[in-house]
Write a structure and sequence with these properties.
Layout (H helix, E strand, L loop, with lengths): L4 E5 L2 H12 L5 H4 L5 H13 L3 E8 L2 E10 L16 E7 L10 H12 L7 E4 L6 H10 L2 E8 L2 E9 H8 L2
Helix pairs in contact: 1-3, 4-5
Protein name: Lysine N-acyltransferase MbtK
Pathway: Siderophore biosynthesis
Keywords: Acyltransferase, Antibiotic resistance, Transferase
Length: 176
Amino acid sequence: MGKKISFIEVEFEQDVDMIHSWMTEDHVHPFWNLNIPIAEFREHLKKALNDEHHTLFIGCLDGVPMSYWEAYWVKGDVLEKTYDPAPHDQGVHLLIGDKEFLGKGYSLPLLREMVRFQFQDERTEKVMAEPDIRNEKMIHVFKKCGFKRIGPIELPDKTGLLMTCERGEFEKRWTP
């Protein structure tokens, strides 16, 4: 890819306006449903940052912020009611915010690095995802990363496709 991938934790005041602008993009809002006024979004982001089972990140390429990530523990999340989770299963949400970075093949390397980061916790054997069932592009990227389709699930804000990436499959696919 020729670019350095990095993830930095979201800092509310520094990042709220940028993340909100990404949420209003045409390629984002149909799947995230956060195309809301900035005052409401500020409250949403504050709540997410205070949620101890989530860690929010800005994904960067060569130091340029271009994506938003949520890494979370499935236990304590709405997702835990949709399957039988192990105690240290993690989940991931993502979006490419800046349109300039769309369609250039960046999603897979970014996702691979985030999942690799999540598997650094030796207790984690699975990383879960539940992309909007209509988001065929992201479902394709998850599959290429090593996620397997489980099936449709109903969540409060969408119909998702429950997917799982097991440590063994990930390491077999991505360890040199």
